[in-house]
């Protein structure tokens, strides 16, 4: 930030996306809160009075001196940029100098502000945004902006707005979306003088999400921060970009950083893709391309029709982002899009594998302890309906897992250094086969061909789409001349091919093939066979869930077992002495 407020020169104004930004109470909240964050606030109180069309935002940021306070609502006046060049170095949320000016035109605006060590001032503005009344006030350092009677002279615009409850939801979502990008801020939100919700600060977004999604706990989430090089094509002119990260978010020097918070697929997912979120430099943005990258990277780790919880925050050199695609800055032009897509895919891949550094034994023991207590109560061991499960103690691939027994011809009991796991044999094998198929979808000749009857044109087309050679073979009969390598020697090859003809893309065909070929539950296995399966499974890319999204293993860590068996009790006491 450059200091005092100045009017932007016309050539800069001409480069800025114009458009109406104040279209609702939620937009007022967004603009005022962004100003508070730009002023370095760590505590922000928002109050909304729907009946009065009033919003008040109070912050503990830097505040303004009297001169700035009087200029704050004039047209195109900002302290954040000055010249055209500055448009490529934006590190603040605001830069157009238009929000307060528009608000003054559409509502009654009052701002009280005080810089530490100076006197505080209160100022009101006319509809042109010129300061009207000014007087000294006693307030804490920071700024309190009150906007009242929004659209009071524009009744038609009020009528065009959604219902009050919908507006309430939009305001809540607005604040939450900003909060996940600024985790170190404390939020207190009221409506009609009553407490509405609060958000406590956290070190990262991992601590914020569980406050917003009640069913999600901190340890259901995996987080990862990666330093990534700035892509070549956008590097020109960025040499002096020393530090562009926004306020409290992790700092990198010359490169960019990618912060990822991911709901572990065996623990949490959603009915809608409403928690697939991307932020760049402190602001959530809509990016269909990057959102699709997330969905693709998480494909086949979640149950059907379920969506991940995934938040990606890119801290990118400002020269790589053009905010002038959308008046409310909800969409951006991002340079080197495919580069960022690749970075995101890799980060998700990494997070799903999990490093030992992220493991939290305490929380895990607690959860297993609870699971055991629940199962003891029910009298039978019960893997409940919820997809929640315990996390493995470190990178699964690095754990020495030793098969010790097969239970009910269904589970492999494996031991390792700090506990034991139950692995369901069918889905573990399914995960192995599925990844093999994705890596190498191999079709081999069928001799003699498999004959299928009564195929519809749609089925025929489907089989051809996944690469099968198929030709008419008499009345209502077709000869299939090749098949996926995994299926071709199976007795039920014809059934499997029929199943594949029923639809889906190649990926679904691979899932169906893996499922059909995997060891059935109920099949006895030798220790050697189990060991081979464990070794293959733990090296898969997504060992937690099968391609349908079911959890594959249940860990029973020693720490949790010790607690369950009360091993910490004094021996004499537990023997009743
Ligand atoms: P912009 O944020 O694009 O600069 P605004 O109209 O939102 O434009 O704000 C105009 C100016 O008023 C800002 O550049 C900033 O200097 C000052 N300002 C607004 N809100 C605050 C605040 N809460 N604390 C300190 N200064 C503020
Ligand atoms: Mg602003």
Give the SSE layout.
Blueprint: E1 6-7, H1 10-15, H2 25-38, E2 43-49, E3 54-59, H3 66-71, E4 77-78, H4 99-106, E5 108-114, E6 120-125, E7 131-137, E8 142-148, H5 155-159, H6 164-181, E9 186-191, E10 194-199, H7 205-212, E11 221-228, E12 256-263, E13 276-280, E14 283-285, H8 288-298, E15 310-315, E16 321-322, E17 333-334, H9 337-353, H10 361-378, E18 402-407, E19 411-416, E20 419-424, H11 425-439, E21 443-453, H12 457-465, E22 470-472, E23 477-484, H13 493-501, H14 506-517, H15 527-538, E24 553-557, H16 558-564, H17 571-574
Parallel strand pairs: 2-9, 13-15
Antiparallel strand pairs: 1-4, 2-3, 3-8, 5-6, 5-8, 6-7, 9-10, 11-12, 12-15, 13-14, 16-17, 18-19, 19-20, 20-24, 21-23, 22-23
The chain binds adenosine-5'-diphosphate and magnesium ion.
Defining key terms:
577 residues; alpha+beta; 8-stranded mixed β-sheet; 5-stranded mixed β-sheet; 17 helices; 31% helix; binds adenosine-5'-diphosphate; binds magnesium ion
Descriptive account of the structure:
- By secondary structure, the chain is an alpha+beta fold.
- The protein is built from 17 helices and 24 strands.
- The chain has an 8-stranded mixed beta sheet. It has a 5-stranded mixed beta sheet with strand order 11-12-15-13-14. The protein has a 4-stranded antiparallel beta sheet with strand order 18-19-20-24.
- A hairpin with a 4-residue loop joins strand 2 (43-49) and strand 3 (54-59).
- Helix 8 runs parallel beside helix 9 and helix 11 (425-439) crosses helix 15 (527-538).
- Mean pLDDT is 86; it is low at 236-245, 247-253, 354-365 and 373-394.
- Bound molecules: adenosine-5'-diphosphate and magnesium ion.
- Magnesium ion binds next to helix 2.
């Amino acid at each position: 930030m450059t200091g005092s407020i100045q009017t932007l020169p016309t050539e800069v104004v001409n480069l800025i996306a114009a458009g109406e930004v104040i279209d609702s109470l939620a937009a007022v909240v967004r603009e005022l809160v962004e100003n508070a964050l730009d002023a370095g606030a760590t505590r922000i109180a928002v109050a909304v009075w729907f009946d009065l069309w009033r919003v008040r935002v109070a912050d503990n940021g830097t505040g303004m001196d009297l001169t700035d306070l009087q200029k704050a609502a004039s047209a195109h006046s900002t302290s954040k940029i000055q010249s055209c060049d500055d448009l490529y170095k934006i590190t603040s949320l605001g830069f157009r100098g238009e929000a307060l000016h528009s608000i003054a035109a559409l509502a009654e605006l009052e701002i009280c502000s005080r810089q530490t060590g100076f006197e505080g001032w209160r100022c009101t503005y006319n509809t042109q945004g010129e300061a009207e009344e000014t007087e000294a006030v006693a307030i804490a350092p920071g700024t309190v902006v009150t906007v009242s009677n929004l659209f009071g002279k524009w009744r038609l615009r009020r009528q065009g707005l959604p219902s009050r409850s919908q507006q309430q939801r939009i305001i809540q979502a607005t604040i939450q979306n900003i909060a996940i990008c600024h985790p170190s801020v404390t939020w207190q939100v009221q409506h009609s003088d009553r407490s509405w919700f609060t958000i406590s600060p956290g070190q990262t977004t991992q601590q914020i999400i569980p406050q917003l999604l009640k069913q999600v706990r901190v340890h259901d989430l995996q987080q990862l921060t990666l330093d990534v090089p700035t892509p070549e094509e956008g590097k020109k002119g960025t040499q002096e970009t020393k530090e562009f990260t926004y306020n409290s978010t992790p700092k990198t020097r010359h490169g960019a950083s990618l912060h990822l918070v991911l709901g572990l697929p065996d623990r949490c997912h959603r009915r809608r893709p409403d928690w697939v979120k991307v932020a760049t430099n402190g602001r959530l943005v809509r990016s269909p391309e990057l959102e699709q990258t997330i969905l693709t990277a998480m494909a086949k780790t979640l149950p059907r029709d379920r969506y991940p919880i995934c938040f990606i925050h890119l801290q990118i050199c400002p020269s790589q982002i053009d905010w002038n695609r959308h008046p409310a800055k909800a969409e951006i032009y991002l340079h080197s899009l495919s580069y960022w897509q690749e970075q995101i895919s890799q980060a998700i891949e990494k997070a799903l594998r999990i490093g030992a550094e992220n493991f939290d034994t305490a929380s895990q023991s607690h959860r297993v302890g609870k699971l055991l207590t629940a199962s003891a109560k029910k009298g039978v061991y019960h893997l409940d309906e919820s997809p929640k499960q315990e996390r493995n103690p470190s990178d699964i691939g690095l754990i020495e897992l030793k098969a010790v027994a097969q239970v009910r011809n269904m589970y492999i009991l494996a031991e390792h250094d700090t506990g034991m796991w139950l692995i369901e044999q069918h889905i573990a094998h399914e995960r192995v086969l599925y990844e093999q198929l994705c890596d190498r979808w191999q079709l081999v000749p069928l001799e003699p061909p498999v004959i299928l009857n009564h195929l519809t044109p749609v089925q025929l087309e489907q089989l051809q789409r996944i690469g099968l050679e198929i030709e008419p073979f008499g009345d209502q009969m077709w000869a299939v001349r090749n098949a996926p390598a995994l299926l071709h020697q199976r007795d039920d090859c014809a059934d499997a091919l029929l199943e594949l003809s029923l639809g889906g893309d190649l990926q679904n065909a691979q899932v169906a093939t893996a499922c059909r070929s995997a060891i059935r539950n109920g099949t006895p296995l030798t220790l050697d066979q189990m060991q081979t399966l464990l070794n293959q499974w733990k090296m898969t890319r997504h060992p937690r869930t099968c391609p349908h999204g079911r959890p594959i293993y249940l860990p029973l860590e020693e720490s949790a077992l010790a607690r369950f068996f009360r091993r910490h009790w004094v021996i004499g006491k537990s023997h009743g002495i």
